[in-house]
Amino acid sequence: MALSVALGVPHVSTGQMFRAAIRKGGPIGDAAKQFIDKGQLVPDEITIAVVRLLLDEQGSTGGFIFDGFPRTRTQAEAFDRVLQDRGTRLTAAILLDASEADILQRVLGRQSCEKCGALYHRKLVPPRQSGACDRCGGKLTQRADDTAETVQKRLEVYRKVTLDVVGYYEKAGLLKRVDGGQPKDKVFADIVGLFQS
Ligand SMILES: [Zn+2]
After folding, report:
1. Less CB within 10 Å around the terminal CB: N or C of the chain?
2. Measured in angstroms, how far is the CA atom of residue 144 from the centroid of ligand 1?
3. What is the pLDDT of residues 73-119, one digit of tens each?
C-alpha cells in the first residue's frame, strides 16, 4: 500500500509538481523549465511559486504529503507563510534518517526495467534471474547518474543546504525522525504510526 492511501491524502513529489507546472505552461512553469532543462536546481522563489500554484488549484483539501520539499531553509520559511495565508499549518516534517553507507548501497544497487519501469535492487530486491524483469522479462538497467560520485555530490548538497531544514523543523517541534535504515515495511509502519493516536 502506498503511504498516500494509508493516510488518505495525495502524495506530491517535487518532480511531479514541476512537471505539472511545465505542462500547464504560463510564466511560472516556463521559468522552472529553463532550469530543469539545464539540469540545474530550480531557485527557491520559483519552487515556492509552484507550490502556491498547486495549493491554489487544489483548493481546500484534507492535506498533502510533500516529498522532497522543502529542501532549503528559505523554502521552509516561505512555505510556512504560504500555509499561514491559507489559514492552515504543517502537521509534521518526517526525516527518514539513514546512514551514508546505507544510502550509497541502496542507490548503487538500484535497477529498473526498461519496458515496464519496475524497480529492483541487486542485493535487497533481486530479480529471479539476474538482469531480467520478473514481470515482463524486460532488460534491467541502472540510471546513468546513480554513481558513487553523484551520490557523494548529492550528499554534499544535502549537508550544506538541506540539513538546515532539519534544524528548522526541530526547533518548531514538528520534526519526526524515522529510522530509514530499517526494512521498508517497518519504515512504512513507523510513518503511519506517527499519525495514529
Ligand atoms: Zn518489466
Report:
1. C
2. 18
3. 999 999 999 999 988 899 999 999 999 999 999 999 999 999 999 99
CA–centroid distance, residue 196 to ligand 1 (Å): 36
The residue to which cell 520559511 is assigned: 77
Q: What is the pTM of this model?
A: 0.81
From CA 10, how far away is CA 30, in angstroms rounded?
A: 25
What are the start-end ranges of the E strands in 122-174?
140-141
Ligand 1 centre from 128 Cα, in Å?
12
* 108 Cα: distance to centroid of ligand 1 (angstroms): 19
Q: Please state whether the peptide bond connecting residue 127 to the residue before it is cis, i.e. omega within 30 degrees of 0.
A: no
Amino acid at 10: P
Q: How do residues 158-192 score in pLDDT, each as one tens digit?
A: 999 999 999 999 999 999 999 999 988 999 999 99
pLDDT at 60: 66
Tell me the CA–centroid distance for residue 140 and ligand 1, in Å: 8
Domains and CATH numbers, the chain: 3-108+162-194 (3.40.50.300)
Distance, in Å, from the CA atom of 38 to the CA atom of 15, rounded to the nearest integer, reads 15
